[in-house]
Amino acid sequence: MKRTDIRRLLEREAGLEAVRVCGWVRTRRDAKGISFLELNDGSCLRNLQVILEGSLAEEGLLKRLTTGCAVAVEGALVASPAAGQRWELRARGLEVLGEADPESYPLQKKRHRDEFLRGIAHLRPRTNKYGALFRIRSEAAFAVHRFFRERGFFHLHSPILTGSDCEGAGELFRVTTLREPPPAAGGENPWAEDFFGREAHLTVSGQLEAELFACALGRVYTFGPTFRAENSNTPRHAAEFWMIEPEMAFADLEDDLELAEALVKQLVHHLREHCREDLELFARWVDPELPARLENLVARPYARIPYAEAVRILQAAGEPFEFPVQPGADLQTEHERFLCERHVGRPVFVTDYPKEIKPFYMRVNDDGRTVAAMDLLVPRVGELVGGSQREERLAVLERRMEETGLPREPYWWYLDIRRYGTVPHAGFGLGFERFLMLATGVANIRDVIPFPRTPRSLEF
Question: For the chain, how are helix, strand and coil distributed in percent, rounded to 5?
């Protein structure tokens, strides 16, 4: 008999005489001649109550049905007389697929601290919270692809191994086949004996490659893992994280702003429609303000503030910021949250940053001092999206590379796009994990990634 998801069973309008379900025992409650199992297969938050009677309720079998064990049950789906549940399964047959040692199984019927669950990331998806979270993550990923497909974007698989640094920050993971690092030498290539014959890294962004394809296919997006060797243990940073990076040819900063706002709003709409039950868990147990915050993300147009004005607002706020506000310096998370949470009370785009604090590829504005850049700041998280109109003018781009100390030769292919049919184009990056933190109220990025990679942490 074919297995049926518990979610589908619980959504049925009528019962079934013969059904087979598989899952893990959450709890077992015994009475005289009868036993009640709470079974969950991960398809939804709710459990299915299974009624065991007769030979299925014998002591020898019940001893094996401990929390965490896997079973297959066949029986009839019938209306339940118990309050709070519509259906229950009256078992006619049960097979133990995998026992769980009750002395060592770490997930008992109680609430566990997130710190404890990070140490058993291979088992934490079986909890209510993390099962719900990773269903939300899956649904959000589907919504990303749906959003771009409906707008005529093509999905690009950008490389994970790269020889270029998109951000110029130097926080790169080196990839090598050499047993020993090459010695510092003069004019010779120290990486000549390595696999690629040159220095290679894990990518920090798929943006540069996306620009190339946007200038051929018009609209593309990448959605994949990126890596940053930043020795930071904050709740907002991880060494491996996923980025959504669209690029549009024949587009400017205004197009960028509109697309970013539409994407965030559509993702929130999609999750509220398709993950209602799972989101309710987070509103109840994690962040009681979550429903109001999600509504705030979709209810009104996002505010827009130029960087210079944002600095003036922060300086006049009279707030005891940990990091003083300095004109010409990047905004800190506390500044970003003040602007969106307290000054405007909704998401806000900060635009036109000084060129000195932004990467080389951002288009220089007519004033020669700022670039056509934007960051989307949202409550609780701070920066969610960072993007810009790209510098399409060859001479200006070469001058910016010289100013930032980047050699031209490794980027010859990037410069070629400005030589052959250059066009205005724009794009942005949205941190997928930061969006999930926003959508669930979870405060630590380690808890929205299946297997977090952080300094001194490479388990699983």
Answer: 35, 25, 40
Burial (CB count <10 Å: 0-12, 13-18, 19+), residue 422: middle
Domain ranges of the chain: 6-98, 124-447
Domain 6-98 belongs in CATH node 3.20.20.150: no
Place of tokens 């200038």: 215
Amino acid at 67: T
CA angle 337, 306, 247 (to 5 degrees): 90
- Residues 387 and 365: their CA atoms lie apart, in Å, by 15
Residue in this structure with the two tokens 């934490």, named with its chain if needed = 124
* pLDDT value of position 170: 59
How distant is the alpha carbon of residue 158 from its chain centre? 18
User: In the numeric block, which tokens belong to residue 411?
Assistant: 């980027």
Task: Dump the DSSP string for 258-304.
Answer: HHHHHHHHHHHHHHHHH-HHHHHHHHHHT-TTHHHHHHHHHHSPPEE
CATH code assigned to 124-447: 3.30.930.10
Q: pTM of the entire structure?
A: 0.94
Any idea what the Cα angle at residue 26 is, between residues 23 and 28, rounded to 5°? Answer: 110
pLDDT per residue over 313-371, tens digit each?
999 999 999 999 999 999 999 999 999 999 999 999 999 999 999 999 999 999 999 99
- In three-state secondary structure terms, 247 is strand
